[in-house]
Amino acid sequence: MSTIAEHTVGHVHRDDIGSRLGMWLFLFTELVLFGGMFLVYAVYRFTYQHEFHVAAKELNTSVGALNTIILLTSSLTIVLSIIAIRKNNKFLSVFFQISTMVLAFGFLVNKYFEWNIKIHHGIFPGSETLLGKGNGEIIFFGLYYVMTGLHALHVIIGVLLIEVMAGYTIKGRINSTNYVRLEAAGLYWHLVDIIWIFLFPLFYLIT
Amino acid sequence: MNGEHLESTVEHKPTYGIYILVWLVLMMLTGVTVAVAGINFGNITVATALTIAIIKSYLVLTFFMHLKTETATFKIFVGVALLFLLISIALLFSDYSFL
Amino acid sequence: MHNNGHAVSYLDYKGKHSGIFAWILSTDHKRIGLLYLMASLLFFAVGVTFGFLMRLELIAPGRTIMDAQTYNSLFTLHGIIMIFLFVIPGLPAVFGNFFLPILIGAKDVAFPRLNLLSWWLYILGALLAVISVFLPGGPADTGWTFYIPYSIRTTTNVMPALIAAFILGFSSILTGLNFIVTIHRMRAPGMSFFRMPLFVWSLYATAWVQILATPIIGITLLLVTIERLFGVGLFDPALGGDPVLYQHLFWIYSHPAVYIMILPAMGVISEIIPVFSHRTIFGYKFIAFSSLAIALFGSMVWAHHMFTVGMSETAQIIFSLLTFLVAIPSAIKVFNWVATLYKGSISTDAPLLYALGFIFLFSIGGFTGLIQGALSVNMHIHDTSFIVAHFHYVMFGGTGFGIFAAMHYWFPKMFGKMYNMKTAKVGFWVLFVGFNTLYFPMFVMGWLGMPRRYYDYLPEFHIYHLISTIGSWILITGLIIMFTNFIKALRSKTTYTAINPWGGETLEWTIPNKPPLENFEVIPTITAGPYEFKDNDEFLMKENN
Q: Are A201 and B49 inside 8 Å of each other by CB?
């Protein structure tokens, strides 16, 4: 079945396309993970259309919109950091990576205050105020906390990831000829962004 | 060697401009979706918001995530993953949208 | 690299670690495969013990050796251990890891360190599952399905079991991811997709299901955890939630999961049948594509587990129809295997016996699956021991026998030793007889109305339970014969040097037994398909003329 070909093995196996392919496959698992949540959302929104409208009025659209702008901008900065390192501009690349982290931090602070205000108003799972409302509204806020919470967890993971990448870039392990790690972290970050692109209208814009 | 090993990503000269342009469009779409949400379209309000979200995701996937310059394998993979989600939601609603 | 290093087998290779660390920190795909093999066989033994005890309880009506609560925990643990710790990793993680790179002419998988990580996650998940048994509160008693609302209300240790299943799912995802990238990127020159052995095709289809379906169970189990911790209400009817939605989400993963379990076994059978009938496989492309078709259709039939929960009639009809459709690609495989055997020069060695056992038992399991897929019949036999019999015929008679077939087929290659063929055949027949004695009566009593998961029963079912319990003893005897035969072979001093004992045509039979660390001294160039048994085909042609 096989003949022996002249072939010598010299260097350690490196395959950037393979690495990116692996990262994309991992992103699919994240996508489906959130996809499961979106299935739950779809079913309950179908069941409790009116209650979802009422409940969504409690959410602050401008806070949501601000966070959308922050995340989209951070997506831009991370992609620019890849361009910068490809152009061999290490300083600019690190600058863009740090900008991404700062923006992500801003997103989280925003989220923190948003949750805090809700909790002060007595709206959190199991609270008397919430249990006093209709079933549909309980579910809406249940979904709100679980989905935005899970998303925020991914933002935190993303920040940690980019922090490591910034370290690699400074040390030169990520450079203009080997930047696939940074690309992978970027892909992850964009996915977090895409999830938010859907979360935003589904929670904040249905009043 | 089979074809797949030979094909490599088309390496364009990296430029900043296109990404800033895409970002501007994304900002604009965010503005549109917020503005439109204030108007009551009735049943199609959600459809409008989701359509805009899909356009935004498409832009992020194509440009920020470089799907545009990746090989066909990547594009097919994304299609398979989306197909799975689509099948799941369609079949799930075969239960919920009927009595 | 190091020219003298090539000859050293993967078992004797000295890396930078020594002792047990040379194994548990090794990134070599063959060592990781063996690590999985040892761990999963250990859990198989535990699972078998639990099954044995359950059968013993059922030998007579009423309380025999345990109370109802213990029985509930036993069937829960039996299910979790067998499914998550033995059947799911049994073929992809053990034999997939060991042979996938060799079969496509690669030195290792695409991400060796990720591969090791997924083994560690597997061990972590397994430990959590074990710990959940001993923590105060007692082992989980929900069944492996964790159905809501009971799984939210019970005071047993459901949480550790849920988290264990979540981690095991993650391990399974990483294995699938690794395999897809390996198959796409690391095939040897000339190894086109249609020159890949069929086991590789089946692993490829399996990997996709692992990647796309597993996250759904991840999020679902996470939601149950959140529900138990915070009472969010997403599945709680008192707060507006829908418990049936939980069942939907659970089965969106768990039905495709049975294809994760059976597909690689079908791949193994597709390897063994042509080799032992010395014939080119019949319908290579059909078998290859039917794996993908099974993966696709398998993702669209989940709600046939839920025909009695009050779904819409439309959904019931759609899912029943789709269930019948998924039988088609499975049947295509069976027909092609039988057609391959036809007019072959068959050697009935142990691997083939197990493969034939697979076809026989899987066919019974498959056909009874169709019976259950029919709506009206399903109402009658839902949640009876008919279902239990069906999935043991598929999962044990199918995947289990597939794993045993793979063990007998690749044993000399993996260890450089040969087991006693006569004992292996005896072991097969005892196992086969025991299997049918154990599970066939369950079809009968299920049809007559014996519910599943009960530790007690009415006197009229006694005779079936008695036969079934005796069957479990025969089955265990068969297992003991098989494993002592393997252990004896491993301990024997004679090395087995024939590198191609069965006359296989795939790449693993071209390299030494106990393959060297990097598998191939030089990466082979592939010039033909995997099952070109030219001699035999020419012989047949002459004979026909």
A: yes
Of A31, A32, A68, the CB nearest to B30: A68
Q: Pick from C257, C495, C202: which is nearest to C394 by CA?
A: C257
How would DSSP label each residue in C296-307? HHHTT-GGGG-T
**Containing structural domain, residue B20:** 14-65
Q: pTM (2 decimals)?
A: 0.94
| Closest alpha carbon to C196 in C279, C104, C102, C91 | C104
Taking only residues 483 to 522 of chain C, the set having a beta carbon closer than 8 angstroms to any beta carbon of chain A reads: 505-507, 510, 518, 522
Residues C190-200: pLDDT tens digits? 999 999 999 99
In a domain, B2, yes or no: no
Helix (H, G, I), strand (E, B) or coil at C64: coil
Residue identified by tokens 């196996």 is A13
**Quick check: is B4 in a domain?**
no
**Range 36-55 of C in CB contact (< 8 A) with B:** none
Q: Locate tokens 């060697």: which residue?
A: B1
pLDDT value of position C2: 41
Peptide bond into C197 cis (omega under 30): no
Per-residue burial over C329-340, b = 16 or more CB atoms within 10 Å of its CB, e = otherwise: bbebbbebbeeb
Measured distance CA(C44)–CA(A132) in Å, rounded: 50
For residues B54 and B90, membership in a common domain is answered with no
The confidence band for C538, taking pLDDT boundaries of 50, 70 and 90, is low
In this structure, are B60 and B89 located in the same domain?
A: no
Per-residue pLDDT at B5? 42
Q: Do residues B76 and B96 share a domain?
A: yes
* CA closest to C253 among chain B residues: B88
Cα C200 to Cα A46: distance, rounded to the nearest angstrom: 42
**What residues does A3 pair with on adjacent strands?**
C525
Q: CB neighbours of C230 closer than 8 A, spacing ≥ 6?
A: A125, A126
Residue where the block lists tokens 């814009």: A205
ipTM: 0.93
Would B1 be classed as within a structural domain? no
**Nearest C-alpha of chain A: how many angstroms from B19?**
7
A43:B92 CB<8 A:
yes
CA distance A128 to chain B (A): 30
Q: How many CB atoms lie within 10 A of CB C452?
A: 16
DSSP 8-state assignment for residue C280: P
Q: For chain C, what is the mean pLDDT? A: 93
pLDDT at C530: 87
Are C208 and B5 an interchain contact pair (Cβ–Cβ within 8 Å)? no
- Cross-chain Cβ contact C189/B2 below 8 Å: yes
Please judge whether C191 and B2 are an interchain contact, meaning their C-beta atoms are less than 8 angstroms apart.
yes
Is C76 within 8 Å of C139 (Cβ atoms)?
yes
Contact present, A116 and A108 (Cβ < 8 Å): no
Across chain A, which distance is largest between two alpha carbons, in Å? 76
Residues in B 44-63 with any Cβ partner in A closer than 8 A: 45-46, 49-50, 52-53, 56-57, 60-61, 63
Contact C312 B98 (CB under 8 A): yes
Which token pair is C77? 């643990």
Interface touch B53/A190, C-beta < 8 Å: no
Q: Tell me the per-residue pLDDT of C68-80, one tens digit each, with 9 for 90 and over.
A: 999 999 999 999 9
Please provide the CATH number assigned to the domain covering C32-544. 1.20.210.10
Mean pLDDT of A79-92: 96
Indicate if the alpha-carbon torsion angle B39, B44, B50, B54 is positive or negative.
Answer: negative
Q: Which residue of C has its CA nearest to A3?
A: C525
d(CA C402, CA C400): 5
Q: In CATH, what class is A18-204?
A: mainly alpha
Domain count, chain B: 2
Closest alpha carbon to B26 in B62, B55, B61: B55
Query: What is the pLDDT at residue C331?
Result: 95
